[in-house]
Design a protein that fits this description.
Helix content is about 20%, strand content about 35%. The chain has 4 domains: about 90 residues, Double Stranded RNA Binding Domain, CATH 3.30.160; about 180 residues, Rossmann fold (3-Layer(aba) Sandwich), CATH 3.40.50.1460; about 90 residues, Sandwich (Immunoglobulin-like); about 120 residues, no CATH class. It is built from 8 helices and 34 strands.
């Protein structure tokens, strides 16, 4: 009886611990500037931000979709306001909420969610930080090529920490570069601006979160603005390469990084960043791999980056990365993984990558708090099956606490991102154009224009002889829905190479009834944007279809497939 009471007491204690973990608030950090130096100032700001977030029902508890909060205090025309960066728990991105303050420091409601930073905000930030004209620091004017590793999240993010450490060793091993490390508190706006002004800069690798608009990324004291590159035409970026392990910084957006870096004179040899929101765990490893290959003499190309993404990122097509298990963000809980061949324990704030051996499978996912183990169940929204799956080559899973003291493991490698995207997409310039983020829903619209609107199409009769792209046989059809005069026909076709599946983001189609082959269609498919960025040229189309029942001048719309 005594043993039973002790056991029940232990279970009750674990439930209390789990509940407290689930309800624990995420950290709120205050960016440093002239007005936030004192501890009292930072505590006051933290209190105001928490009050505003709770007022607007923003979840900052243990199961929040945000990993942390970073806050910047700014002044503009004698008014004060806060830019609250809600850092994603899963991706290298953040949302911004603006909180306007009254003269007494109280909140002026309503707050502004999904705020887009304006030019006036960057001017206010520059004034607060007392930023000066960028000048290369004297200690780096050595003539030796500089390799810069930079991140405001080096200590706090395990994937960035490990990736930076690996890359640092690779740089030292070459003996060819002067290493510059702008990490944690050294990752300031002015430090970034100054080092980018060095004529002997060779490579610049940044790791950290960016806004959802592709125009800036967060540092320890503010936001680095893409217009830095257009506002400093005296700087020469030829023979230099930059990677930004951030989200959406390869997007085609007004005043964004990608369009600016592609159009400045004396431009970069190479620029790469995320075309989509990138996973925190997986993208840092991808860029560390990319730079190590470059240091070892491999060419700096999109193909080199793609090889690394397949090897390390669990969210790209055909990933061979292994299974990422991310530890709890609470110090009290450990993640326990049991396969039919071994047991693995993952400390809080850490992660492991498991590659299953032949016949191996994960049979249990559990958590341990104060020596008490609790078996976790799969989140019903998971798109990948973890348990008893011997064929699993990649995936990413995190621990979530439930209010009743139980737990779930959530698969994040296929979480939906902006534009209904469920994959990591990397952009690489100059080989690729800036990415046009699909609208939602649907993911883009394709239009067939011809002298005769087409009533029906048959995909099975395409091209008697296969095309070739760089020696690969190609089947180059699409799937979607044709809708004309209340008639619809589902089409089951797709682009593919013998070596890899090609997932379409967008393309232009111009198809019309063939003038030489009755009952056949002919035309062109061009401007193809693919998910994994295969460089596809304009393709010719020849296939069978029903050209009857058409009406002159009618356009037919095709909705392409959603990202998978």
């Amino acid at each position: 009886m005594k043993y039973m009471f002790q056991k029940l007491l232990g279970i009750f204690f674990v439930i209390l611990l789990c509940t407290s973990v689930a309800n624990a608030d995420i950290a709120i950090h205050v960016m440093s500037n002239a007005h936030t130096q004192s501890i009292q100032s930072k505590q006051n700001i933290q209190s105001v931000v928490k009050q505003a977030l709770l007022h607007d029902h923003v979840n900052i508890g243990g199961n929040s979709p945000y990993g942390s909060v970073s806050v910047e205090l700014l002044r503009n025309n004698n008014s004060r306001y806060l830019l609250v960066h809600l850092m994603s728990r899963y991706f290298l991105s953040y949302e911004i909420m603006r909180i306007n303050l009254n003269a007494d420091g109280s909140i002026r409601y309503p707050v502004i969610p999904n705020y887009k930073i304006q030019h006036a905000d960057f001017l206010a930030q520059s004034s607060e930080l007392k930023n000066s004209i960028p000048v290369c620091p004297v200690e780096y004017q050595t003539g030796k090529p500089l390799f810069v590793i930079a991140s405001p999240a080096y200590t706090d993010t395990s994937s960035i920490n490990r990736s930076v450490n690996r890359l640092r060793k690779a740089i030292f091993s070459t003996g060819q570069y002067q290493l510059v490390q702008l990490l944690d508190d050294n990752a300031t706006v002015q430090n970034y601006q100054n080092i980018l002004a060095c004529s002997n800069l060779a490579y610049f690798a940044h790791f950290g979160g960016s806004d959802d608009y592709g125009q800036s990324f967060a540092l320890v004291d503010g936001d680095f603005d893409a217009t830095y590159f257009s506002q400093n035409p005296q700087l020469n970026f030829s023979d230099k390469a930059i990677s930004l392990d951030s989200c959406n910084l390869f997007d085609q957006v007004d005043q964004g990084f990608c369009p600016i870096l592609k159009t400045i004179s004396k431009g970069l040899t190479a620029y790469t960043s995320g075309s989509s929101q990138l996973l925190i765990w997986g993208s840092a490893e991808t860029y560390a791999c990319f730079w190590k290959k470059v240091l070892h003499g491999e060419t700096m190309t999109q193909s080199t980056l793609q090889q690394c993404s397949v090897a390390y990122d669990p969210s790209v097509p055909h990933s061979q990365s292994g299974i990422y298990f991310v530890g709890s963000r609470d110090n009290a809980a450990k993640v326990l993984i049991q396969t039919n061949q071994r047991s693995i324990s993952i400390a809080p704030h850490d992660y492991i990558v498991l590659k299953l051996s032949n016949g191996e499978k994960v049979v249990q996912y559990a958590m341990s708090i104060a020596g008490q183990n609790t078996i976790c169940t799969p989140d019903p929204t998971n798109r990948i099956t973890l348990l008893n799956n011997t064929a699993l080559l990649s995936g990413e899973f995190i621990l979530n606490f439930l209010d009743d003291g139980t737990c779930q493991f959530t698969e994040v490698s296929r979480l939906e991102r902006n534009g209904n995207i469920t994959r990591d997409i990397y952009g690489f310039s100059p080989q690729e154009q800036c990415f046009h983020l699909p609208n939602k829903p649907p993911v883009g619209t394709l239009t067939l224009t011809s002298d005769a609107g087409l009533l029906d199409m048959v995909c099975n009769g395409m091209a008697a002889s296969p095309l070739e792209i760089s020696g690969y046989p190609v089947r180059y059809l699409w799937q979607g829905l044709v809708d004309h005069f209340n008639h619809s026909q589902s089409l089951a076709c797709t682009f593919s190479l013998d070596s890899a599946k090609i997932e379409i983001a967008s393309m232009n189609i111009d198809i019309r009834p063939s003038s030489t082959l009755p009952g056949m269609l002919a035309g062109r498919i061009s401007n193809i944007k693919t998910m994994n960025h295969y460089p596809l040229p304009t393709l010719s189309y020849s296939g069978k279809g029903d050209a009857a029942g058409y009406h002159n001048g009618v356009a037919i719309k095709i909705n392409p497939p959603q990202y998978q």
